[in-house]
Structures are given as structure tokens and as C-alpha cells.
Amino acid sequence: MTTIRRGLPMVLLTLAPLAMSAPNIANTAHAAESATTASSSDNSHLAKKITPKSWRNISVDALPENIRNRTKVAVSNYPLYLLSQAVTKGAPDATLLLDPGDVGHHGSLSPGDMKNVRDSRYVVWFGNELESNLVKSLGGSANSISLFELNVFNRQPLRDVKGEPIKDTLDPHIWLDPDNAKAITRALGAIFSRANPQYKALYADNVRQFAQQMDEAVRQSQLKASTEQPYWAYHDAFHYIEPTLRLNMVGALTTDHHLPPKASQFHWLRQNRPKPKMCMVLQTDSNQGVLSKLKPVTSTIQQEDMSGSDDFLSGWRSLAQDINQCIGRG
Angle 22-33/200-221 helices, nearest 10 degrees? Predict the structure, then answer.
């Protein structure tokens, strides 16, 4: 399994989940906003090390005058919204732009959504690799922040239907990696603190609590995961949870869950099954028709965007538990 890792920039190193203070999160947010100008003498050593393009238009001077003092923060999709809720618990929520289920090139912004974009101080989205449908709306916005342009996440490549990595690609479902989820909340904590400094201590405490709870969820998920186990996927969308659960996706039916599987891929899976009874991770009820062609097989239906969950941690726990049960870990 190929893992592409990028170094944690100084802008987030000050946000270690178990040692975060309100001043740290405020200073980090300020450093992020002034990365292009290094206007803060206290944080200039941080600002000079910040190279990701996503902060290029987020200095105070670069923001349009009509939104410089706004407090609203908008986020693009549902998994990002769930993570933002973990950060803002006890304070005003972020505004969600896309409906649950509209993730991965799906969904579009309504006129009301576009007004929210214009009225927000910051608009946080993942970026083109996941949300090409939003590039026209957000790509050129002075107040938009693309998380994919931050060098803070573990990154995995896309894979073909045989489980082989595809060179120079990015699997965009980064939030399923527990370390990435924690890094996203740290980044959001910095962003929210800049927009609403009166809540910076609350945000810092929420980010710290989320990290502790995420670590406990990981610990629980690994109690029965002593050895690596193979599984199949209808569509390869769960790469980032595999290292934590000690899983190995050894084949998928299609590269896009909107495309029907080819007969040749059914044949390949049957000929290359690593154990007699396999687990197939499906994404919708309509996918279940494929199971009769791959018996014996167990299955579980999962949404990588956690659109059936009300909070990130419970959604991640449920996903991990269901996949563990599917592969026979009880």
C-alpha cells in the first residue's frame, strides 16, 4: 500500500491536539492570514514557512472590505460540516453549502448558497480533486480556503479495480484517516478563531477533546484487528480508513460508483479471491444485485461522506464497526 505523506507546516504545529492553548490557536490563525505579508512580528517566523497557495488571498488586506469584519464561516460539504461542528460546539455553527450526499463532484450551489459564499468571511472547501463542481464558484473567491492546498495531511493515491495505486493521483476522501480528521479540526479551529476570536478558548478545548475522542475510537476499532484482512469494494472509497483497521482492498468492481461493473471484473475477482468468503463494501442498496455473482460473500452498505450520521465521531465508529463485522471480526 502506497502512502504519500506531506510534512506538517509550522502553521499547524502549534495546534498539537493535547497541548493547545487559546493563544496558540489565535496566533496560528493570524500567521495563516498574514502568510503573504508576514505583517506580525511575533509570527513572522511562522508566516515565512507557510507556502500553500490556499492562504494567498486570506490576509486581512486581501479580503474584500465588505466582509473583513464578518463572523460567518461556510463549509462546502457534509463531512467537513461534521468536523466543523466538533470545533464549534457551544458556539455558532458553520453554514453548510451542499446537501448531505453531495460530495465527490456532485451537487451545485443555489443562488442562496452563493449569497452565503459572498456573505461569509471564509469559505472552506476541500478542493478540485473532490469538488470539481465548485471550482467555478469557489476557486477564484478571495475568501475561499482549499484544504487540499495545505501540506498537513496523510495522502493516498487513487487505485485501479485491482487495487494497484495510480501514479500522480490523489484519493480525495482524506477525512476517513483519523490523523487527517484531527488535522482538519485544528485548521478549522484556527479559521474560526480568526473569524470569532471571542470563542477561541472554546474552539481550542473542543479541538483537544475531539482529538482525545478520536484516539479512543481508533483504540476501540483495533481491539479485534490484530492481523491485516482483505476485502472488496464496489467502488474504492475507503482507502484512508484501511491502515487504522488493518485492511487491504484487493479489488473493486468499478472505478466510479455511477458506472456499472464489467463482466470481466466479476471474473477477475472470482479468480483472485484471497479467501473463500469475502466482504464487499457497498455504497447503496441498489449495489446488492452484484453479490449473487460473487458468492460466498458478506456485505455492508456504507457512505464515505457519513451522510447518515449526525456527528463525525459516531459516523466514523459505525463505519469501522460495520466493516470489522463484515470481514468477520465480530
Answer: 100
Q: Give backbone dihedrals phi and psi of 100, rounded to 5 degrees, phi first.
A: -55, 135
- The domain spans of the chain are 20-219, 229-326
In whole angstroms, give the CA distance from residue 186 to residue 184: 5
The domain 20-219 is placed in CATH, from the list 2.160.10.10, 3.40.190.10, 1.10.1380.10, 3.40.50.1980, at 3.40.50.1980
Record: fold of 229-326: Rossmann fold (3.40.50)
**pLDDT, mean over the chain:** 82
Which distant-in-sequence residues (6+ apart) come within 8 Å of 127 by Cβ?
Answer: 146, 147, 148, 149, 172
pLDDT in tens, 11-29: 333 333 323 333 333 333 3
Tens of pLDDT, residues 125-158? 999 999 988 988 888 888 999 999 999 899 999 9
